[in-house]
Design a protein that fits this description.
- The chain is about 40% helix and about 15% strand.
- With about 450 residues, the protein is an alpha/beta fold.
- It has one domain: Glycosidases (TIM Barrel).
- A hairpin with an 8-residue loop joins β8 and β9.
- α14 packs parallel to α15.
- The chain binds beta-D-fucopyranose (FCB).
Length: about 450
């Protein structure tokens, strides 16, 4: 396969992280607690009782980590802001050292020619706002709009790519429907309200940006293509439900101004009638969309599955990651094409893509991770295939720069291009990271199968 010159010179080659997963020091220098701090400190909520108290100690090592990005040859870096570092109570008083940390990070990135993509919300709501109902409180959209304006004013002179929310689907599915992520609620009646207020908050942030900002703002969603397990009408209907719930629940309101009709069927009596004016408001024009892609779902109708009645069917002989996610690169091409067809030709970024694998024991300075390297190569090729089919794809961000705190799974799953020894905080670039550096240096030419060493 010829790949030369197929990635344009301004293609963004990045890696992604999020605040609570890497920073550590969650209460340092006047920061307030977030729902993730409280959730992780609640017995039984995370594997081994792991917390983000130290994580990758990035709060104290951010210069070293920016040097690591430069060593990998990245020209972009996606990170998130901890809302409660900037506003300890979520509203009102600004904490200057919290804001100062992100200003220094952005300056360090720019010094190295690395373009920041800044996510305003990656799941760590200030705990003080959760006590007021969190995303179930209709005022949450205003809280968010007030918070983001502080960031726009402080950083829009240096940050050109802004993201409102990371994966609202996970915020609600994990945090309000199944209770496995912060804030740990399990309530069919609450979930649609949390989704709706997140969308209102997203729109309020975009609107505020149009008044203050001069660059680009978008949304990041996690998408997973759905394929029916058989040709039966039941499996087909289950596939549509799964697709509506996972892929269209947030994008249809944002781009088309309406919720998918399947949601009323899935939520039954718990599905509210939302004001038409809200749906008009939610449909704010965006500058780009970020897609996080990890896996696909082969769907079978299953009355035992709550609330979708749509089970995930295991694929014999396929590779699964250590989180049991099927490896399916073709799904990345499929979902990018689907987005372009359904929602139009707006610029797209792959804002996360990566895999947790058990890495073989390491000899010093030699971090071999053949499965992750192959995953990266195959998904970059799938991204390239989407570009060749005309998708307006402008960049790729690997998840993740570093091994880090994988939410309720704690530190066991390792997603990094860089290995982190949590006892010493030593970072070692893995073979996948070195391979990525080679791909970046060669502007994609190293993706040719014979060069990839896998
Ligand atoms: C995504 C999250 C990210 C990370 C990866 C593995 O859903 O956005 O923080 O946990 O999964």
């Amino acid at each position: 396969m010829s790949t030369e010159l197929l990635f344009p010179a301004d293609f963004l080659w990045g890696a992604a992280t999020s605040a609570y997963q890497i920073e550590g020091a969650p209460l340092a220098d006047g920061a307030g607690p977030s729902i993730w701090h409280e959730f992780a400190h609640t017995p039984g909520r995370t594997r081994n009782g792991d917390t983000g108290d130290i994580a990758c100690d990035h709060y104290h090592r951010c210069r070293e980590d920016v040097a690591l990005m430069a060593e990998l040859g990245l020209n972009a870096y996606r990170f998130s802001i901890s809302w409660s570092r900037v506003l300890p109570e979520g509203r009102g008083r600004v904490n200057p050292p919290g804001l100062g940390f992100y200003e220094r990070l952005v300056d360090a990135l720019l010094e190295q020619g690395i373009q920041p993509m800044l996510t305003l919300y990656h799941w760590d709501l200030p705990a003080a706002l959760d006590r007021l109902g969190g995303w179930l409180n209709p005022d949450s959209a205003d809280w968010f709009a007030d918070y983001v304006q502080i960031l726009f004013r402080a950083l829009d002179d240096r940050v050109q790519l802004w993201v409102t929310l990371n994966e609202p689907w996970v915020v609600v599915d994990g945090g309000y429907l199944h209770g496995v992520l912060a804030p740990g609620q399990r309530n069919l009646f609450a979930a649609p309200h949390a989704s709706h207020h997140l969308l209102r908050a997203h729109a309020a942030a975009v609107q505020a940006y149009r008044a203050i900002g001069r660059h680009q703002i978008g949304l990041v969603v996690n998408l997973e293509p759905k394929y029916p397990a058989t040709a039966s009408a039941e499996d087909f209907a289950a596939t549509l439900r799964a697709d509506a719930y996972w892929n269209r629940q947030y994008l249809d309101p944002v781009f088309l101004g309406a919720y998918p009709p399947e949601l009323a069927e899935i939520f039954g009596a718990a599905w509210p009638t939302f004001p038409a004016a809200d749906l008009d408001f939610i449909r704010q024009p965006l500058d780009f969309l970020g897609v996080n892609y990890y896996s696909r779902q082969v769907v079978r109708h299953d009355p035992q599955d709550w609330p979708l009645q749509a089970a995930r069917i295991r694929q014999p002989r396929h590779t699964y990651t250590s989180l049991d996610w099927e490896v399916y690169p073709q799904g990345l091409t499929d979902i990018l094409e689907w987005v372009a067809q359904r929602y139009g030709p707006l610029p797209l970024y792959i804002t996360e893509n990566g895999a947790a694998f058990y890495d073989p024991p390491q000899a010093d300075d030699l971090a071999d991770d053949p499965l992750r390297q192959r995953y990266l190569r195959d998904h970059l090729q799938a991204a390239l295939a989407a570009r060749q089919k005309g998708v307006n794809l402008r960049g790729y961000f690997a998840w993740s720069l570093l091994d880090n705190f994988e939410w309720a799974h704690g530190y066991a799953p390792r997603f990094g291009l860089t290995h982190v020894d949590y006892a010493t905080q030593r970072r070692t670039i893995k073979a996948s990271g070195r391979f990525y550096a080679k791909v970046i240096r060669s502007q994609g030419a190293a993706l040719r199968v014979d060069d990839a060493g896998a």
